[in-house]
Specification:
An eight-stranded mixed sheet has the order 3-2-1-4-5-6-7-8, sandwiched between helices. The protein is α/β, with parallel strands linked by helices. Strand 4 (64-67), helix 3 and strand 5 form a beta-alpha-beta unit. The chain is elongated and about 70 Å long. The chain is built from eleven helices and eight strands. It folds into two domains: 3-167, Rossmann fold (3-Layer(aba) Sandwich), CATH 3.40.50; 173-266, ProC C-terminal domain-like fold, CATH 1.10.3730.10. The chain has helices at residues 10-21, 37-45, 74-82, 100-107, 138-148, 161-171, 173-190, 195-215, 220-227, 233-243, 246-266, and strands at residues 3-6, 30-33, 50-52, 64-67, 90-93, 112-116, 126-132, 152-156.
Length: 267
């Protein structure tokens, strides 16, 4: 399948790199449209497909078109792209908050896939939720899933509102982890460690905890009980978290992220 990525920024570039590294696409099968000169130089340096700075007839030969532009740029891209859209094209949008119906209406096609990747997709450790229009053949949907799997875990959804939930969980989720890590790093430095030492300690603590969780069937609460000793240090910290309703407030923050994602989808 010949693939065109419109937008060679961080996510578009990450997709291109993942597709080529996994050898699902060849250099000749991948094309990128990017208007920023510095981004063009970087794409060419990394040899990430054929790079153009304008729309052109070459679009007609593509089968999958990935819209990796910023949502606010969508309405400047739609009319340029619509002139080249034909019945064989499948459009995959990664634009946050932009509904499938919006893309269909503005491009005059009903073959649209919407996906929500997160930042760790840049290193092949991401989570991507995606939803496929019913008019797309199963073999094509399977190929798109295979492409997305090069960036990490994929989850197929059947209700577009679930993409808002994916945004609140894995889309925004890395920031929640960084927030907790930052608090721990700052406190570790107050305890007398330098920034490098504190960062390494906290980083490895998170990595080790996640790996333990992955290789066992225990729940998070069971692991908390395993780490905690009656009257010990962990119990004291967890008691404070519970008294301060930390878990409740994390979940309320996720509620706010979900509502904001829904609000953006309405615009």
């Amino acid at each position: 399948m010949n693939v065109l990525i419109i937008g060679g920024g961080n996510m578009g570039r990450s997709f291109a790199e993942s597709f080529l590294n996994a050898k699902i696409l060849t250099h000749k099968q991948l094309t990128v449209i990017e208007k920023d000169h510095a981004q063009i130089l970087e794409l060419n340096r990394m040899k990430l497909g054929q790079v153009y700075n304008e729309f052109g007839d070459f679009i007609s030969e593509k089968e999958l078109i990935i819209l990796a532009t910023k949502p606010q740029d969508a309405y400047s891209v739609y009319p340029k792209l619509k002139a080249f859209i034909n019945e064989k094209h499948i459009v995959l949008t990664i634009m946050a908050g932009v509904k499938i119906s919006d893309v269909e209406k503005n491009l005059g096609t009903n073959k649209v896939i919407r996906c929500m990747p997160n930042l760790p997709c840049q290193i092949g450790m991401g989570v991507t939720g995606f939803m496929v229009s019913s008019s797309i053949p199963q073999r094509d949907a399977d190929f798109v899933r295979k492409l997305l799997e090069t960036t990490g875990v994929t989850i197929q959804l059947y209700d577009e509102d679930q993409l808002n939930a994916i945004t609140a969980v894995s889309g925004s989720g890395p920031a929640y982890v960084f927030y907790f890590m930052d608090a721990m790093i700052q406190k570790t430095m107050e305890m007398g460690f330098n920034h490098t030492e504190a960062s390494k300690m906290v980083e490895q603590t998170f990595l080790g905890a996640v790996e333990l969780y992955k290789v066992n069937d225990l729940s998070c609460k069971e692991w908390i009980d395993k780490v905690s000793s009656k009257g010990g240090t962990t119990e004291a910290a967890v008691r404070h978290f519970n008294n301060a309703a930390v878990s409740f407030n994390i979940q309320k923050g996720m509620d706010d992220a979900l509502q904001r994602s829904r609000d953006l989808s309405k615009n």
